[in-house]
Each structure stands twice: as C-alpha cells, then as structure tokens.
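My main concern about presentation is that the manuscript never shows what a single data entry looks like. The format is easy to grasp once an entry is in front of the reader. For illustration, here is how one protein appears when written out as sequence plus structure tokens:
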Amino acid sequence: MSAPLKRNKPDSSAASIREGDFNSLEARITFRNRTSDYTIAEGKYQIPRELLEKGLAFDVPRKACALGHVLNLELTIVGADKKTKLVAAGRVTEIELIDDETQTVYVEFFQVSEDDWKEIKVLYASKQRETLRLLKSMRGF
C-alpha cells in the first residue's frame, strides 16, 4: 500500500496576489483645439503617453496642434473603483514628431482643478506600486 499523498503548502508569492491586481486603468483624452478649432472626431479619443508635473503628453494627428496652441481637454479614467474625470485647459509647450502622420504633444495646464489632478496622479502612482509589488512577488525583484 502506498503512502498517502501530501499536499504542498501554497507558494507564498501566490498568497500575495490579490483580486484586482490584473485590472488596468484605461485613460481616454478628448480635446478641442481652441486656437485652430480642431476637434477630435465624435467617439474617438487619445491615450496619454505620460503624466507630466502639471500636464499631459499624448499622440495626435500631425496637423491637429502646433506649438503654443490652447486646448480644452477632458481626461477620463475607467477601471478604477470609480470613473474619474478631469477637465482642463492647457497650452502645447513641446511637440515631438513620431512619423508623417503622428506627433506627440506636451500640454501644460493653466486651468485645472488641483484636487482633481492630484487624484489622477495618486491613482496612477497607486497602480504603479501595485504592479511593482506583483512583479516582486512573482520574480523576486
């Protein structure tokens, strides 16, 4: 007669994975260029590349913005515990050409709710910490 099988203890790294660790944030930017009156098409949106100290960087069609143009922006975050929205106005301070059709614009806010902007930054920082914690538990970083 063979010995009964023993169950192995669960891996301690598996115990540190929590429900929601794989949920991501989805950010969408819609905007209107007040200088040229260009508006992003209905139902279309841009995705932020980078959160700046007080602004955003995101890709747009090459002719959508120029240096110094003023934009009205709406940033919506979906996938957090709640839907978070930020409305702001900003100026294009830098442009980086990506290819013949696309450019990255860097927009510095001059009109924004400081509390709403702080909430967005805290949300992203929290998600980054969760991702790092997950990677460390899986790979021993």
